[in-house]
Amino acid sequence: SSELTQPPSVSVSPGQTATITCSGDKLGDTYACWYQQKPGQSPVLVIYQNNKRPSGIPERFSGSNSGNTATLTISGTQAVDEADYYCHAWDRSTGVFGGGTKLTVL
Amino acid sequence: EVQLVQSGAEVKKPGESLKISCKGSGYSFTFYWIAWVRQMPGKGLEWMGIIYPGDSETRYSPSFQGQVTISVDKSISTAYLQWSSLRASDTAMFYCARLSHGIASRSYMDVWGKGTTVTVSS
Protein backbone atom coordinates (compact mmCIF):
# COMPACT_ATOMS: atom_id res chain seq x y z
CA SER A 1 0.00 0.00 0.00
CA SER A 2 2.38 2.71 -1.17
CA GLU A 3 -0.39 5.30 -1.39
CA LEU A 4 -3.34 5.75 0.93
CA THR A 5 -6.37 7.73 -0.18
CA GLN A 6 -8.79 9.46 2.18
CA PRO A 7 -11.72 11.78 1.44
CA PRO A 8 -10.64 15.37 2.09
CA SER A 9 -13.66 16.09 4.23
CA VAL A 10 -16.54 14.43 6.02
CA SER A 11 -19.42 16.18 7.72
CA VAL A 12 -21.66 14.73 10.41
CA SER A 13 -24.37 15.96 12.73
CA PRO A 14 -23.84 15.64 16.49
CA GLY A 15 -24.94 12.25 17.72
CA GLN A 16 -24.72 10.63 14.30
CA THR A 17 -22.14 8.18 13.00
CA ALA A 18 -19.09 9.44 11.12
CA THR A 19 -17.30 7.11 8.73
CA ILE A 20 -13.86 7.90 7.34
CA THR A 21 -12.29 5.61 4.78
CA CYS A 22 -8.70 4.95 3.79
CA SER A 23 -8.02 3.09 0.56
CA GLY A 24 -4.86 1.42 -0.59
CA ASP A 25 -3.81 -1.57 -2.64
CA LYS A 26 -4.29 -4.70 -0.52
CA LEU A 27 -4.46 -2.55 2.61
CA GLY A 28 -6.40 -5.31 4.33
CA ASP A 29 -3.32 -7.53 4.15
CA THR A 30 -1.55 -5.33 6.69
CA TYR A 31 -2.40 -3.30 9.76
CA ALA A 32 -3.86 0.20 9.66
CA CYS A 33 -3.96 2.77 12.41
CA TRP A 34 -5.59 6.15 12.80
CA TYR A 35 -4.45 9.45 14.27
CA GLN A 36 -6.53 12.41 15.34
CA GLN A 37 -5.06 15.88 15.10
CA LYS A 38 -6.71 19.01 16.42
CA PRO A 39 -5.50 22.49 15.43
CA GLY A 40 -2.22 23.41 17.04
CA GLN A 41 -1.76 19.97 18.60
CA SER A 42 0.31 16.88 17.96
CA PRO A 43 -1.40 13.84 16.45
CA VAL A 44 -2.97 11.38 18.87
CA LEU A 45 -3.38 7.67 18.20
CA VAL A 46 -7.05 6.69 18.27
CA ILE A 47 -7.01 3.24 16.62
CA TYR A 48 -4.11 0.83 16.19
CA GLN A 49 -3.75 -2.60 14.60
CA ASN A 50 -6.99 -2.07 12.64
CA ASN A 51 -9.44 -2.07 15.50
CA LYS A 52 -7.79 -1.61 18.89
CA ARG A 53 -8.33 1.46 21.03
CA PRO A 54 -5.53 2.89 23.15
CA SER A 55 -6.23 3.55 26.77
CA GLY A 56 -8.18 6.77 27.19
CA ILE A 57 -9.80 6.75 23.75
CA PRO A 58 -13.61 6.70 23.98
CA GLU A 59 -15.52 3.59 22.98
CA ARG A 60 -17.30 5.51 20.25
CA PHE A 61 -14.13 5.18 18.15
CA SER A 62 -13.81 1.91 16.25
CA GLY A 63 -11.94 0.63 13.22
CA SER A 64 -11.94 -2.10 10.62
CA ASN A 65 -9.75 -3.12 7.71
CA SER A 66 -10.56 -5.47 4.86
CA GLY A 67 -9.79 -5.75 1.19
CA ASN A 68 -8.47 -2.40 0.02
CA THR A 69 -10.16 -0.23 2.64
CA ALA A 70 -9.65 0.64 6.28
CA THR A 71 -12.46 2.45 8.03
CA LEU A 72 -12.62 4.64 11.10
CA THR A 73 -16.08 4.88 12.61
CA ILE A 74 -17.12 7.36 15.26
CA SER A 75 -20.49 6.50 16.76
CA GLY A 76 -22.46 9.21 18.50
CA THR A 77 -20.09 11.87 17.21
CA GLN A 78 -19.50 14.78 19.54
CA ALA A 79 -18.35 18.31 18.84
CA VAL A 80 -15.04 17.49 20.53
CA ASP A 81 -14.36 14.94 17.76
CA GLU A 82 -14.02 17.67 15.15
CA ALA A 83 -10.45 17.28 13.91
CA ASP A 84 -8.25 16.01 11.11
CA TYR A 85 -7.88 12.25 10.91
CA TYR A 86 -5.01 10.42 9.26
CA CYS A 87 -4.69 6.74 8.46
CA HIS A 88 -1.28 5.10 8.46
CA ALA A 89 0.11 1.79 7.27
CA TRP A 90 3.46 0.28 6.43
CA ASP A 91 4.81 -0.34 2.95
CA ARG A 92 7.77 -2.62 3.58
CA SER A 93 9.91 -0.60 6.00
CA THR A 94 8.43 2.78 5.16
CA GLY A 95 5.44 4.30 6.83
CA VAL A 96 2.73 5.84 4.70
CA PHE A 97 0.10 8.35 5.75
CA GLY A 98 -3.17 9.03 4.06
CA GLY A 99 -3.78 12.59 2.96
CA GLY A 100 -6.03 13.28 5.91
CA THR A 101 -9.74 13.88 6.38
CA LYS A 102 -11.20 16.94 8.00
CA LEU A 103 -14.16 15.90 10.12
CA THR A 104 -16.70 18.64 10.64
CA VAL A 105 -19.41 18.23 13.25
CA LEU A 106 -22.24 20.51 12.20
CA GLU B 1 5.81 9.38 32.27
CA VAL B 2 6.88 8.41 28.78
CA GLN B 3 7.56 11.51 26.73
CA LEU B 4 9.45 12.98 23.82
CA VAL B 5 10.60 16.54 24.30
CA GLN B 6 11.49 18.44 21.16
CA SER B 7 13.67 21.49 20.81
CA GLY B 8 12.22 24.93 20.34
CA ALA B 9 11.10 26.84 17.29
CA GLU B 10 13.72 27.92 14.80
CA VAL B 11 13.88 30.80 12.35
CA LYS B 12 16.59 30.47 9.74
CA LYS B 13 17.70 31.96 6.44
CA PRO B 14 17.97 29.99 3.21
CA GLY B 15 21.31 28.24 2.95
CA GLU B 16 21.81 27.95 6.70
CA SER B 17 22.22 24.66 8.48
CA LEU B 18 20.02 23.37 11.30
CA LYS B 19 19.79 20.47 13.72
CA ILE B 20 16.67 19.91 15.81
CA SER B 21 16.34 17.42 18.61
CA CYS B 22 13.97 14.99 20.26
CA LYS B 23 14.78 13.73 23.76
CA GLY B 24 13.10 10.65 25.12
CA SER B 25 12.44 9.95 28.76
CA GLY B 26 10.46 7.56 30.94
CA TYR B 27 11.34 4.48 28.89
CA SER B 28 14.32 2.57 27.50
CA PHE B 29 15.17 4.93 24.67
CA THR B 30 17.68 2.54 23.12
CA PHE B 31 15.09 -0.10 22.26
CA TYR B 32 12.45 1.88 20.39
CA TRP B 33 12.67 3.27 16.87
CA ILE B 34 12.05 6.99 16.51
CA ALA B 35 10.23 8.40 13.49
CA TRP B 36 10.32 11.91 12.09
CA VAL B 37 7.21 13.36 10.48
CA ARG B 38 6.83 16.59 8.53
CA GLN B 39 3.74 18.75 8.35
CA MET B 40 3.91 21.70 6.02
CA PRO B 41 1.63 24.66 6.77
CA GLY B 42 -1.99 23.65 6.24
CA LYS B 43 -1.01 20.24 4.91
CA GLY B 44 -1.01 16.63 6.00
CA LEU B 45 1.49 14.38 7.75
CA GLU B 46 4.47 13.06 5.79
CA TRP B 47 6.75 10.22 6.82
CA MET B 48 10.39 11.29 6.66
CA GLY B 49 12.36 8.44 8.14
CA ILE B 50 13.22 6.42 11.21
CA ILE B 51 16.20 5.59 13.37
CA TYR B 52 16.98 2.85 15.86
CA PRO B 53 18.93 4.29 18.79
CA GLY B 54 20.47 0.92 19.64
CA ASP B 55 22.67 0.80 16.57
CA SER B 56 21.81 4.03 14.68
CA GLU B 57 20.26 2.09 11.79
CA THR B 58 18.40 4.62 9.71
CA ARG B 59 15.82 4.34 6.98
CA TYR B 60 14.56 7.25 4.91
CA SER B 61 11.44 7.77 2.89
CA PRO B 62 12.49 8.11 -0.77
CA SER B 63 11.08 11.64 -0.76
CA PHE B 64 13.51 12.72 1.95
CA GLN B 65 16.58 10.63 1.17
CA GLY B 66 19.49 13.01 0.64
CA GLN B 67 17.48 16.01 1.82
CA VAL B 68 17.88 15.54 5.57
CA THR B 69 20.00 13.54 7.97
CA ILE B 70 18.60 11.62 10.92
CA SER B 71 20.97 10.75 13.73
CA VAL B 72 20.96 9.78 17.39
CA ASP B 73 23.03 10.04 20.54
CA LYS B 74 21.81 7.21 22.72
CA SER B 75 24.00 8.33 25.62
CA ILE B 76 21.67 11.29 26.09
CA SER B 77 18.52 9.63 24.71
CA THR B 78 18.24 12.15 21.90
CA ALA B 79 17.42 11.84 18.23
CA TYR B 80 18.17 14.54 15.70
CA LEU B 81 16.99 15.81 12.35
CA GLN B 82 19.33 18.05 10.44
CA TRP B 83 19.70 20.04 7.27
CA SER B 84 22.95 21.21 5.71
CA SER B 85 21.40 23.94 3.59
CA LEU B 86 17.85 25.02 4.29
CA ARG B 87 15.38 26.17 1.67
CA ALA B 88 12.19 28.13 2.06
CA SER B 89 10.30 24.96 1.17
CA ASP B 90 11.63 23.35 4.39
CA THR B 91 9.31 25.60 6.39
CA ALA B 92 7.15 23.21 8.37
CA MET B 93 6.35 21.61 11.69
CA PHE B 94 8.44 18.55 12.46
CA TYR B 95 7.32 15.87 14.87
CA CYS B 96 9.19 12.97 16.35
CA ALA B 97 7.30 9.91 17.48
CA ARG B 98 8.10 6.58 19.09
CA LEU B 99 7.36 3.37 17.22
CA SER B 100 5.64 0.79 19.38
CA HIS B 101 6.96 -2.38 17.72
CA GLY B 102 9.84 -1.36 15.54
CA ILE B 103 9.64 -1.88 11.81
CA ALA B 104 6.69 -4.19 11.68
CA SER B 105 3.26 -3.94 10.14
CA ARG B 106 1.74 -4.02 13.61
CA SER B 107 3.80 -1.02 14.74
CA TYR B 108 2.27 2.38 15.37
CA MET B 109 3.38 5.73 16.77
CA ASP B 110 2.28 5.65 20.36
CA VAL B 111 4.11 8.69 21.76
CA TRP B 112 4.56 12.00 19.95
CA GLY B 113 6.59 15.06 20.67
CA LYS B 114 4.93 18.48 20.62
CA GLY B 115 6.70 19.38 17.41
CA THR B 116 9.35 21.87 16.34
CA THR B 117 8.41 24.69 14.01
CA VAL B 118 11.05 25.55 11.45
CA THR B 119 10.67 28.76 9.48
CA VAL B 120 13.06 29.47 6.63
CA SER B 121 12.85 32.97 5.25
CA SER B 122 15.18 35.59 3.92
Let me know the largest β-sheet of chain A.
6 strands, mixed
- The percent range for strand residues of chain B is over 45%
Low-confidence stretches of chain A: none
N- to C-terminal separation of chain B?
A: 40 Å
Helical fraction of chain A:
under 10%
Order of helices and strands of chain B: EEEEEEEEEEE
Query: What order do the helices and strands of chain A follow?
Result: EEEEEEEEE
Derived from helix and strand composition plus strand pairing, the structural class of chain B reads mainly beta
Helix content of chain B: under 10%
Tell me the greatest interface: A-B, 25 and 25 residues
**Average pLDDT level of chain B:** 96
**Sheet bearing the most strands of chain B, described?**
7 strands, mixed
Number of helices of chain A: 0
User: In terms of structural class, how would the helical and strand content of chain A be classed?
Assistant: mainly beta
Radius of gyration of chain B: 14 Å
**What is the count of helical runs of chain B?**
0
Overall residue-averaged pLDDT value of chain A? 96
Beta-strand content of chain A: over 45%
Radius of gyration of chain A equals 13 Å
What are its keywords?
heterodimer, A: 106 residues, mainly beta, 6-stranded mixed sheet, 3-stranded antiparallel sheet, 9 strands, 47% strand, B: 122 residues, 7-stranded mixed sheet, 4-stranded antiparallel sheet, 50% strand
